[in-house]
Specification:
It is a single chain. The protein has a single domain, classed as Alpha-Beta Barrel (TIM Barrel), CATH 3.20.20.80. 33% of the residues lie in helices and 16% in strands. The protein has helices at 12-16, 71-74, 82-87, 112-122, 133-136, 145-160, 203-222, 235-244, 258-286, 314-337, 418-430, 448-467, 510-521, 526-532, and strands spanning 2-4, 46-48, 64-68, 126-130, 164-170, 228-233, 292-306, 309-310, 339-340, 350-351, 361-373, 385-386, 407-408, 413-414, 436-441, 472-478, 497-499, 506-508, 523-524. The strands form five sheets. The chain has an eight-stranded parallel barrel with strand order 3-4-5-6-7-11-15-16, surrounded by six helices. A three-stranded mixed beta sheet has the order 1-2-19. A hairpin with a 2-residue loop joins β7 and β8.
Amino acid sequence: MRKIGANRGLVAVVVGGLALTSGVVGCGDDGATTGTGGSAAPPDPIAFGAPGSLVSDDGRGSFRLGAATAATQIEDGNTSVDWAVFTAPESEGGLGKGKAPLGDATFGYTRALDDIALLQEMGLDTYRFSIEWARVEPQRDVIDAEALAHYDEVIDALVAAGIEPVITVHHFSNPIWVDDPRDVACANGPSDTNLCGFDHPEGAPQIIEEFAEHAQLLAERFGDRVRVWGTVNEPVNYLLAGYGVGSVPPGKSYVLGAEKLLNRFVPVVRTYLRMHAAAYEAIKANDANGADVGLSLSVGSFIPARFNALSDDPEDVAARDRVVALYHYLFVDGIRQGKFDPDFDGTLDEELPEVKGTLDWLGVQYYFRAGVTGQTKLIPVVEIAPCFNGIDFGSCIPPVGDDFTKCVPTMKYEYYEPGVYEILKDFSARWPDLPMIVSESGLATESGRRRAEHVVRSLEQIAKARDEGVDVRGYLHWSLYDNFEWVEGYEPRFGLYRVDFASYERSPTEGATVLGAVSAARELTTEQRQELGGLGPMSPEEGYTPGTHCSN
């Protein structure tokens, strides 16, 4: 038996997905099995150590097993959040955007304490969730004491159950007063009801200050029970979607013209970096438990492409590299060096000293593989055209080995198992002293069997990276149960537990059963790996008819 661990301790780009790597890498010992495709030799079981510190040296070798959610995607009665007005029908005063209104999501606020039992049923040790800024501060400088008391109860119940809370401070949503999607022009300038957003020269500094005050409040209130905090979630993904192409709130589109990209979108990214750093400092100064503060980064497996095929054309390789620099390196390199890249040319040539060193751990969030071409300059300045959400400029490529069981139909992208291994290896080489956790990874599917295969294959690839010296300290599955999948509405199902959207009852899928078994034994067994693991074809998605690639 191999021993892993020891110590106890959206864009259309966001929704469709973008991904990054330099090629197809085999799975070595962890790829010997092929799951539903057969087996070359019985694989060794993989043992996982107990959970430990996410940051300190004595936590190296430890391993967390958990699940993740986000407040907006699960909570009912969430009327002060920007997503409520963005998705509500026009007849109700909203903008009618997305495939479904947010509504009451999956009643995750009302059922919050009951949902902790789901984590207990699986024996998980960590729960990553967000605290809704819009619920805590529905109006500027007006704090809802009942909301804080609710989150107190949730945290207390988690601690009592032996489950460590990991809190995300900002996860793809804002109070309406930060940047009202119904008034994106903000002609009257910043006010208490609309600060005009991250792109406004007067409003943005006020938002940074407000966000720091919010983070301080959370740290003061919950820091005696919460040690691990994430400031922001998938920053590049979120900003491209909200301020790049306008597919999510606030619905601003700045990346399809060079002037707007440089003069409107770049300041948005700079603002968000400063928001992260301000929250980091506020939490560090006010968490009585000695906070470990990081952020979570959207990653993927980006491939050079042209004419819907793999490409080695230097123009496409360079385009892929620019996507890598923007998506994977911009934030972390900037934070570690205290610098910023103001023209997205891959060079950090602007000093930003206030962000330097504000990162204790990095969350890696992996879902997909996708092509990118330099032949079409859809996005100026970076001069790329990625394959996303069914939009194809010759960059959409067939899945590896033409294996269409790896397509994720409701998200229109490909799941590629080795991608998470390749990216963890890349990040470890680039930032060898930065501890990591896979803070999200999941599969949208109606099939519990496919979800179980995803769990096992993800853990195999993470174990492979750990075997090769990568300091990755856990796996948090996305998501605990089915939820509101942003502009895609309620069709994509990512949950370990399936939600009946008529009764809102939760029932375990095979994914929950398998992850629970791994957690109980702290081991992936030979039988689990033979049956569910490897790189071979997955169980089919019922009703799916393949096209020429996963995006059609």
